[in-house]
Amino acid sequence: MVNPRDVPQSKLIGALTQQVKDLPGLKEPEWARFVKTGSHAERLPEDSGWWYTRAASLLRKLYLHGPIGLSDLERAYGGPKALAYFPKHHRDAAGSPIRKILQQLEQAELVAKTPKGRVLTSKGRAMLDKASKDIFAEMSQADAALARYA
What we know:
Shape: globular
CATH class: Mainly Alpha
Strand order of the largest sheet: 1-2
Low-confidence stretches: none
Mean pLDDT: 87
Radius of gyration: 17 Å
Largest sheet: 2 strands, antiparallel
CATH architecture: Orthogonal Bundle
Order of helices and strands: HHHEEHEEH
């Protein structure tokens, strides 16, 4: 069986972004157009649909590393911040966008909260498995050597 570990993450996140946009409970708030993704970022995200891309990325990360907590996700999405002439230091990502996306995914019944952190529900796992199966089928049509693994 094909799972998200078997396909390139860029293709999987691109396919999931389209599926996440169609979810009725997941809406980008008005303030998302004006907010940076963390103190390490110098500017706003260039992608106007970054909210849905982050949601797709969170789903993938929960599939691979769940159960995972908010502070771990903030650390994962953070980055280096230049501090004058000192070496760069790591800064965590902003927690509010990650938390709001996770809450919306919980309302869509793709994510569940447990005492150890958030995990994917069976509906969420099925969504990622189906997307990766479709991507792997496209890849195996393009490359005959991959067809034997499908």
